[in-house]
Structure formats: structure tokens, C-alpha cells
Amino acid sequence: MAGLTIPSATFSSTVKSFTLDEVTKHNKENDLWVVINSNVYDLSRFAQLHPGGKSVLLNQSIVTSFYRCVQYLISLVLPPEPQSLRFTAGQDATTVFYSLHRQEVLERPQYTRLIVGKIQDVEEQVTPRIPGSLSSVPYAEPTWLSKEFTSPYYTDNHRLFQRKMREFVDTVLREEALKCEEKGTRISQEVLDKMAETNLLAMRLGPGLHLHGRILLGSVVKPDQFDYFHELILDMEQARLGTRGFIDGMLSGMVIGLPPVFNHGSPELKARIVPEIMEGRKFIALAITEAFAGSDVNGLQTTAVRNGDFWIVNGTKKWITNGTFADYFTVGCQTEEGLTVMLIERTEGVETRPIKTAYSSTAGTAYVTFDNVPVPLGNTLGKVGQGLSVILSNFNHERWTIIAMCTSAQRVIVEECMKWTSQRIVAGKPLSSQPVVRAKLGDMISKVEACQNWLESITDQMNHMSHRDVADKLAGRIALLKQFASKAGREIAEDAAQIFGGRALTPSGMGRLIENYHRTSGYDAILGGTEDVLKDLGVRQALKKMPSNVRL
Ligand code: HEM
Fold first, then answer.
1. Which residues are in the Cytochrome b5 heme-binding domain (predicted)?
2. How far, in Å, CA of 219 to CA of 252, rounded?
């Protein structure tokens, strides 16, 4: 057997080269080899531990049945070993493997160790995606990242930024995301440090002065060059992880809780807390919603009463993202003068309890209670009694980031469905040969493309407008797009679950991304404003601008 050096993503040492005939001899229970994607695996010992059971590794596939029948006829003349009548073992199991497992199974170190060689002169049938690379599946990437298409919005710098972001997501975040999503644990300080090192946390807050003096993603983009398309790319790349709880656990609380501080806090307060938060050493959450009031911020019941140089705060907050581990809370309170926002530090009288939600507790969703908590008057954000404008000032940005992540998550689902419907064989034909399945794919693709194109158009406007103009001219459009995108997401999730069947119901295995999205797509329809409220807001904003001098 000749030695062969294979430069591969999974192993790089000198590996042995075999013929298929040689592999066929290893077809017994304790001497069990299979070929998957031109690699030869020795499963002799692993068969006992195989999560799918030992018997399936020994069972006949249809192809091997035929092959064995021929063997059987020959055996009438020359008897084979009795066991070899029912082997998958000793065969090329590529097709059956990919119909039952995701590629990532083969990439786990404990399984790459099972490789004993490669089949001579045989090309890989499946090319695993290299971390950081683009997908070649149609509609798996937005048009601007698809070969041979152009875009009026993105520059070479955006393209470079996208490449680096995807690399970061694939190599630094992906493993952590899977682990935290499954175990419900909070993001590790080690990964947070890496995010802070690249200033990813600061970039999540959008373009602005807070980026000045910072080195962004290893100097890929200069702080004053960073625009809303860079931020869009960042959000969309992160959302490709397909782990909804972890996406929020990656400090979404900061994205919505910190802007009121640096837009409305005193210079001393900002100097004290903003750097440590943007560097991932301390954590902040936005605490507005209550069991008593959600979108209706005027109905909040948490109170703040003045006492000397302090507010004394009493009340409760519910559904607070990152609340279980937050050091600071940006809180809406009722005062004598009206709604007022203030920064409350985790101190005596502040308690947080995890709330069990439909997504992973890695997001740190909390119920927060304030019991006679003294808050320095200097922690007031904006003017006393004008809390509504402080809260509203960040809503458009929050909603826009939700749209970006929701659209990107949908695209991942489209990619999953394109792959699955092409590889899944039912009654001898791929699923995609069914018109009803193609109709679902058509709906999904149309929806995600509509969201992407509308979103890019709004993002372009944001790049050319002041904050005030965004509030005046884009609030309604952002609201309408958010409800459209989240509804599209929920419909896509439903269609994808129908396509994947039972696989869409288990959080691990082939349909794990579909299961996660199907379970959590409703979050985008509620967080940052429910669909009905936003649709109404969008129309009300439009009606406000109806000229009085028009008639049919
Ligand atoms: C290198 C070889 C293999 C490895 C490392 C492996 C590993 C695994 C793992 C980790 C699972 C759990 C589910 C998942 O994480 O996707 C699984 C399930 C399964 N495996 Fe394998 N497997 C191998 C080969 C095969 C082959 C050749 C067959 C062919 C019959 C097979 C049949 C199954 C079945 C039927 C299940 C259960 C699937 C389900 O629950 O939907 N496996 N395998």
C-alpha cells in the first residue's frame, strides 16, 4: 500500500491509501470499515458506541442488497462467509451517511481519529465548507456576495470586512455558540475578551464617536469609515450561527442598554462605565418592560422617589435580556415629573431571577426586582420626566438590528432547505422533485430576498441621514419592515419544519438549525415591538404625512 499525503481540513498526516476491494474485506462485526467521502474509517470499536446503534452499520443498503444478491448467487457455487450477507460494513457509505448526519459530525476530533486512510484516486464527493468561506448554494448568500452580481451599496472595504467577520464567527464564536446554546450557560469571558479585542462589542453599537481611537477587527476598517453597512454585515454574520439564545446572550443587552447612557448620561457617568462595558468586563441590560406594561411604556409601575441626592426605586421588570448577569440596568421609572430613565447598579435591593423561556437560558433572561434601591441623582439619563424620548431614541436602531439578524437567520434556513431537498431521496427521487416542495422553496427565497433588498435600501438611507431624520422619516418604514421580516421568518420556519419533518423537532442532528429557528423565530416578532403594534405605527407615521391637498 503506497503512502499518500493529503492536505485536508480534517487531517494532515501521511495517510494510507486503499482500494475499495481492500476495504470490502473489513466487513465483520469486529473488523468494520466504511468509506465516507473517500476517507476510510475503522469503526470496529466505535460500532458499540455509535449513537445510531451497531446494527445499522451492519445492515444492507439497497445498493449493497443488490450487490450481495449477486454475491449470493455466486455463493451457490462458492459459499461466502455467512456474516458478509448483511454488511453495510466494508462499503462506500457516503450517501447513507449524509442522509443521516450533518457534515459537522465528521469534523469532531473524536471521529477524525477513526480515519485510517483514503481510497486511491477517488475525488471527494462532498466538499465541506472551509471556515470563513462563502456558500456556493444558490440564495445562501445575499446577491452582493454571490458570484457575478454587483451592488450599488457595498465597497471593497465592506467585502474585506465581511470576510474577516465570517472568519471570526466560524473560528471564534461557532463552537462557543453551540456549547452555550445547548447547556444554557453564559458566554465565556475568554470569548468575550476576543470580541472586545477586535472591538466587536463597540461596533455593535453602530457608527459614531465611541469608535474613535479603537482598532476595528485588526484595522480592517477605520473608525470614521465604519458605516451602517459595516454594522449590517456584522449583525448578519453573527446571526448565521443559528443559535438564537446565544445571539442574545452575546450581549444584546448592551446593544439596547448602553446607548441611552452614552447619549444621555453625564460625562462622569460615561467615563466611569462605558469603557468597561465596551471592553466586555461589565454587563448592562435594558430594563423597561414589566409584567404590568410592555410596549405601553407609559403604563410602567416601577417608581423612583426623590430623597436628598438619591432616587429610591421600587418595582419589578420582566423579560430582561442578559439580566441574570448584568452589573447595570438602564431602567424606566415613574417619577412625580413623569417617566424618567436612570442607570441602576447591581447593589443591595436589586435581585435577578432567571425566567425560563422558549430559547436557551444562555441569553440570561431575567425577572428583576428593585426593593428600596438608592440611585444617585447623577445616574439620571436625560431630563427628568422625559424618559419616553430617551427610550424611543434607540428603538429604530434596535429594530433595524433585529431585522438584520432575522433576515440572515432566514437565509441560513433557505440554505438548509436547498441542501436537504436536494440530498434527501424519497421513493427514489430527491425531495426537490416534488412541485409542492419547490413551491415552498419559492416562497422562502422570495421572502428572504424581499427583506434583504428593503433592508439594504433603508440602511443606505440611514447612512445619509441624521439621527433626527431617521426618527422622523424612517421610523415608520423600519417598523413596517420589522413586522414584515418577522412574519416572513415565522412562515419560513413553518415551511422548513414541514420539509424536514421529524428532524425539525430535535435540537441535535440533521434538522438542528430548523428546530432552533422554528422554536425561536417568534422572538423577532415580539422583541423590540410586536408585529401588530409596529404595523400600526408604520401606517400611522405615513398617515401623519398625508398631504391635505390630494384627492382621487
Ligand atoms: C464515521 C462514521 C460515523 C460516525 C462518526 C457516526 C456518528 C453518529 C452520531 C454522532 C450520531 C448522533 C446523531 C448526530 O449527531 O447526527 C449518529 C446517528 C446515526 N447514525 Fe451514525 N455515524 C457514522 C456512520 C454511520 C453509518 C455508515 C450509518 C449507516 C447506516 C449510520 C447510521 C446512523 C443512524 C441511523 C443514526 C440515527 C439517526 C437519527 O437519530 O436520525 N452512521 N451517528
1. 15-120
2. 24
Q: Is 100 in the pocket of ligand 1 (CB under 6 A)?
A: yes
Q: Which CATH superfamily is domain 394-544 in?
A: Butyryl-CoA Dehydrogenase, subunit A, domain 3 (1.20.140.10)
CA of 11 from ligand 1 middle (Å) equals 20
Q: How far is the CA of 135 from the centre of ligand 1 (A)?
A: 25
Predicted confidence band at 11 (pLDDT cuts at 50, 70, 90)?
A: very low
CA 39 to ligand 1 center in whole angstroms: 16
15-36 per-residue burial string, b: 16 or more CB within 10 A, e: under 16: bebbeeebbbebbbeeebbbbb
Which DSSP category does 219 fall into?
Answer: T
Instruction: Write the DSSP assignment of 316-363 as a string of letters.
Output: EEEEETTGGG-SEEEEEEEETTEEEEEEEES-TTEEEEE---SS-GGG
| Closest residue by CA, ligand 1 atom 26 | 97
Specify the 3-state DSSP secondary structure of 14.
strand
Atom of ligand 1 nearest to the CA of 34: 27
Report d(CA 131, CA 116) in Å as an integer: 24
> What interface predicted TM-score (ipTM) does this complex get?
0.96
For the domain made up of 3-119, give the CATH fold.
Answer: Flavocytochrome B2; Chain A, domain 1 (3.10.120)
Amino acid identity at 239? A
| Per-residue confidence band for 12, with pLDDT thresholds at 50, 70 and 90 | very low
